[in-house]
Write a structure and sequence with these properties.
434 Repressor (Amino-terminal Domain); 3 domains; 6-stranded parallel β-sheet; 6-stranded mixed β-sheet; 11 helices; 43% helix; elongated; DNA-binding; transcription; DNA-binding transcription factor activity; Lambda_DNA-bd_dom_sf
Amino acid sequence: MATIHDVALKAGVSVTTVSRVMNNRGYISEATRTKVYAAMDELGYQPNEIARSLLRKQSNILGLIVPSVSHPFFSELADRIEYYAYQKGYKVLLCNSQLDPVKERDYIEMLKRNRVDGIMMGSHTLEVDDFMSLRSPIITFDRQIREDIPYISSDNYEGGRLATERLVSQGCRKIAHICGNLQLDLLANRRTDAFRDVVQRHGVAHLIIQTDMNVFDQARYEQLLRELLVAHPDIDGIFATSDIIGAFALKECELAGKRVPEDVKIIGYDDVNAARWLSPELTTIRQPIDDFGKLAVELLSKQVEGETVEIRNALPVELVIRGTA
């Protein structure tokens, strides 16, 4: 197996020069760089990444923990994070917690053992104390777990306000809001706060339906919405806290013989790609998923370099009017 000394001898340079080429440090002429890479290719040399990370005190790896990569919002977010991480020279370790605290804790320990440079938390089953032992920089999505840990969210209150005002302006007189379990300490709960404020201000009849603790159990959405439409046949507006719930609402309305948007108007949240695959296309609140990914990588990379970053990062949302409302 070839060593760094073999590469240096083959390229006619010092071991230090080979090391500088591999770590992209200091000035190296393009001719020298080309010779070193040619020697590495010819000898089949593979650098010891663990040794290099110990030397640099950086692994150039970021950890991302999400509840369910099958959920369109988190799959699109993971895609954007990987894209921007790669642009900055990082690789991403993707962990799918499935809202299991034991699995989430195991993943955090695994990321610590692999000396990742930073961790992005999109899954929030652990208590705050579980994060105290982390030495790597960390950011969270839609949850503030400590005053000194940066988080990224959309302007959830404004999103809830825009959605509810749209339904009211379209003439809805009894609106159902389908949201996650409000016992979870999530910034997304502000969507529900805005919903309450708007319907109460306008004097509109309403009800709030919470999903189970596992807010990603899609089979539960069908049953919940079917029961809602049977128990409240006069519902004429639905504000869903995700596009997936909005899609199930559209399906269940059609199965119940209710026309959308004539009989029931529906608004989702996120604006994932699938929102445009429905017929009619889903009116929704757009979260800037691309900006989320870019900002997440930027916040972590700055912390890795020892820079101070903004703790509260709430990005603007937008009402996207399509066919369902």
